[in-house]
Amino acid sequence: MADALSMLYAALMLLTSVASTCGNLLLLLVLLLNKELRSNTLGLTLSFSLSDLVLGLSAIPFSAYNSLSQPVGHSSEGAVCQGGGFIFLLLQTASLHSLAWATIYKFTEICFALSFRSIWTVGRSRAVLVAVWLFCLANATMPLLGFGSYAYSDSRFLCCLSFTPENRYFVLLWMGAGIVAPILTMCSLYGYIVYVARKQARRGTFMCNELHCFYVPANNYLRSSLVMVATSVCLLVCWLPYISVCLYETLSGHQSPSVTAALSSWLVLTSAALNPWITCMTQTRYRVAVRRSFCRFIPCSGMFLESRSQSSALHLHATNRVSTTTTSTSATRPPSSPKTPTPP
Fold first, then answer.
1. What is d(CA 48, CA 74) in angstroms, rounded to the nearest whole number?
2. Which H or E element spans position 158?
3. Helix orientation angle between 218-252 and 181-203, rounded to the nearest 10 degrees
4. d(Cα 253, Cα 241) in Å, to the nearest integer?
5. What residues does 214 pair with on adjacent strands?
6. What is the C-alpha separation between 132 and 185, in angstroms, rounded?
7. From CA 19, how far away is CA 55, in angstroms rounded?
8. What is the SS3 string spanning 100-141?
9. Model-wide pTM > 0.85
10. What span, in angstroms and rounded, lies between the C-alpha atoms of 139 and 62?
């Protein structure tokens, strides 16, 4: 039975590795081929995509290999294990924080559209990216300096943080600032965006700039709400079991069941595979860019025409953003015809 579970765990890990690698390579290819997707958040998108890609190529296959080979007496003090634990912690934290700041960017773009350009400048975006990586490097370096420690986990088949009472101060610090804080931030911002979307859907809205106004159907807001709710649910499902198991082991001093520890580790690594697919498949501009990128290599005339029409609509939407929290004359003035843009 133990051998069967090990083989199942290895198969799940390998599937996760393939999904993470393919998804993040697809996301990077789309960003490379479509310049219109390169905004101030490009650095953050590259940050979590590259972090997830390296996780999919390093920690996940390493865990699958160990679950099959069942190494006995694995050295936790060796350079390989210490380096593996460092990379695992660094990439976990960097991916989650980069994703959290990308969510903050999206929240600012939607809820503070009129002042968005002055809030998110190129310099501030770069400063946020540098601060994220400095924070993650500091967290990952502390166990190497004696504040916390890395060790091989027989139940997770990984070199990771040692979740023992001796390391509880560092584990609690890392869990609070490195994991729980960004997850709560993302879920809270998504919740507020959904609230704003429902409010707009009830009353309808007109998107305007200095030249035109056009009506935005309520379905657009409701569809975005469903995407954000699904994203929050996936985030919580992937991370809550891992957080619970790690805190239990750290505070109680008892090892959790091997199946529970392995399942929670697989779920948290699955987030590295889900992130790029959620980004590519749930945002219209990314879906259009994916189709257009495929059409550069594969003939698809009907799909290409559809992509071009959606791209034009997205461009019109991007040039007609208004704040959902600020009422102004130009932002609330309806056009003479709800469906046809007309000068005010």
1. 30
2. strand 158-161
3. 160
4. 18
5. 207
6. 15
7. 11
8. HHHHHHHHHHHHCHHHHHHHCCHHHHHHHHHHHHHHHHHHHH
9. no
10. 22
What does each of the 344 residues of the chain score in pLDDT, given as a tens digit?
Answer: 477 888 889 999 999 999 999 989 988 888 888 777 777 778 888 898 999 999 999 989 988 888 888 776 667 788 888 999 999 999 999 999 998 998 898 888 777 877 878 888 888 889 999 999 999 999 999 999 989 999 998 888 889 999 999 999 999 999 999 999 999 999 898 888 777 777 766 665 555 555 555 555 555 555 666 667 777 888 899 999 999 999 999 999 898 998 999 999 999 999 888 888 777 666 667 777 777 777 766 665 444 444 444 444 444 344 444 333 433 434 444 444 444 443 33
Cα distance between residue 49 and residue 98, in whole Å: 9
Q: What angle do CA 223, 100, 96 make, to 5 degrees?
A: 115
Q: Choose among 85, 106, 140, 63: nearest CA to 282.
A: 106
DSSP string covering 264-284: HHHHHHHHHHHHHHHHHHHSH
CA angle at 285 for the pair 341 and 30, rounded to the nearest 5°: 145
224, 197 Cβ separation under 8 angstroms: yes
> For residue 122, what are the CA distances in angstroms to 79, 117, 127, 135, 338?
39, 9, 9, 20, 36
